[in-house]
Each structure stands twice: as C-alpha cells, then as structure tokens.
Amino acid sequence: MSQPVIFFVTRHGETLLNLLGRVQGWSDSPLTPQGVQDACLLAEMMESIPFHAAFSSDSGRAVETARLILSRGNREGLSLRQDRRLREWCFGSLEALPMKELTEAISRGLGGSLTMGEMNARMEELPDAIKQADRSGWAEGFDGVRRRLISFFRQTAEETSAQGGGNILVVSHAFSIKTVLYLLAPQRLGEVEKIQNASVTTILWREGVFEVQAVNQRILSSQ
User: Fold this and answer.
1) Which residue in the list 64, 88, 95, 140 is annotated as catalytic?
2) Which of 9, 84, 115, 142 is the most buried (most CB within 10 A)?
3) Is residue 189 a contact partner of residue 182, using CB atoms and an 8 Å limit?
4) Annotation says 95 is catalytic
5) Residue 184 maps to a domain
6) Out of 12, 64, 95, 173, which one is annotated catalytic?
7) CATH code where residue 75 lies
8) Is the pLDDT of residue 220 over 70?
9) 32 in Cβ contact with 16 (< 8 Å)
10) What is the C-alpha to C-alpha distance for residues 67 and 124, in angstroms, rounded to an integer?
C-alpha cells in the first residue's frame, strides 16, 4: 500500500517586480524587505513540520524564499532541490511590463474584458492569448505548462510514497499554482482571486489520487 504524501505549495515572498506591479514569469527580481519578513514568519509558522524533502523552482525569488523557510527548525540533512518544472509561466515579450498590459493582452485575445474569476475559468485559453501578443516566440502554451507541473507532482508523490511518505515543501509561483488547482480541483479556483505571496496551498496524494485540502492560506502572524 502506498503511503500518503502532503505537498505544502507556497508562493514566493513579495519581490521588487511584484511591488512595482509588473509581469514576472521567467524574469526575476529579488525579495523586498516585506518579502523576506513574510518568508521568515512563514518559516516560524512551519518550523514544526517535518519535511521529507524541499523543492523550489530555479528562479532566484523561489530559491531565496525556500531557503528562508528551511532556515528554522531541525532541518539537518535536508537540502533544497531546484526544479525548473516549478517555474512560473513564460510570458515572452510581456515579461516585466506593467500587469495592466498583460491583462489587456489576455482580454483582447479572449474577445473582451474579463474578471479574474472569468480568467480562472478559462485558464487553458490564457496562454494562447498571451502567445498572440508575444513578439519573442518564448511564451508557453498551456499543454507545456500542464505537462511539466503534473510531471513534477506525480513523480515526486510516487517517489516519496515509495520511501514511506511524508511532507514536501514546494515553492513556486502564482500562475503555476493556479494551474495546479485548475488541473486537480477546478471547482476550488472560485475561492481564489489571486494567489498571495507567501500563501500555502496543501495537496494530499494518496493511492494515486490528489486531493486539494486548503487553498491560498495566509498563515503569517503579521497579516
């Protein structure tokens, strides 16, 4: 019988580009002082959780957040593993532009102004709209994002379960976390306007089935 695995999926702390309201996909920027503080508070709140393994995307903001979380508690022998499958969506030539321009590009591509809830419901269509506006040829299609994320979670769940199960820390990004929710529990996207910085979404894997247990939880004492 396979052993259960619980993923603690965390968005990185606030960054400079977040603060400036700019698109941040494969581009990167450092954590702000608030982002560092929130990651440290999250570390304090998660200090007692015995993590079997810890992963982040290879983006600097995710790596920094994960290392701050792992800086508290008895973590000897637990090394952070960087996995590019956990990266944010790539937005091509829209990277680092004001978020308003990304929203406008998506609305144009999908035929009209949309609320965040409407965008959540049409998640699979968003990358095509972004690709229409992208001049670099780098923007990802939905299928590529889906494959890399599901590959990570299935492989990690199966390998961890075979080793006796346990808790897994995952530090990723807003659109990527939304994609995971859309794929595993689309009905729960209605709970989410925005995946908050330093929020935690918990996902249980048991007997080959994923179950989203909590979404976008803010567990910081300062919030």
Assistant:
1) 88
2) 9
3) yes
4) no
5) yes
6) 12
7) 3.40.50.1240
8) no
9) yes
10) 32
Q: Choose among 3, 11, 54: nearest CA to 157.
A: 3
Q: Is residue 83 part of a domain?
A: yes
Give catalytic status of residue 52 as yes or no: no
Higher pLDDT, 193 or 183: 183
CB atoms within 10 A of CB 18: 21
Q: Side chain identity at 56, as an amino acid letter?
A: S
Q: Please tell me the distance from the alpha carbon of residue 72 to that of residue 216, in angstroms, as a whole number.
A: 22
The tokens of 71 are what?
């800086």
Tell me the DSSP string of 65-117: HHHHHTTSSS-TT--EEE-GGGPPPP-GGGTTSBHHHHHHHHHHHHTS---HH
Contact between 58 and 84 under an 8 Å Cβ cutoff? The reply is yes
E strands, the chain, in order: 5-11, 51-56, 80-82, 166-172, 200-206, 209-217
Tokens read off for 168: 């897994």
Using alpha carbons, select from 45, 83, 44, 78 the residue that is nearest to residue 63.
83
- Report whether 29 contacts 16 (CB < 8 A): yes
Q: Identify whether 36 is part of a domain.
A: yes
C-alpha distance from residue 84 to each of 17, 23, 70, 105, 158 (Å): 20, 19, 19, 26, 19
Give the pTM: 0.95
pLDDT band at 8 (very low <50, low <70, confident <90, very high): very high
The average pLDDT across 16-35 equals 97
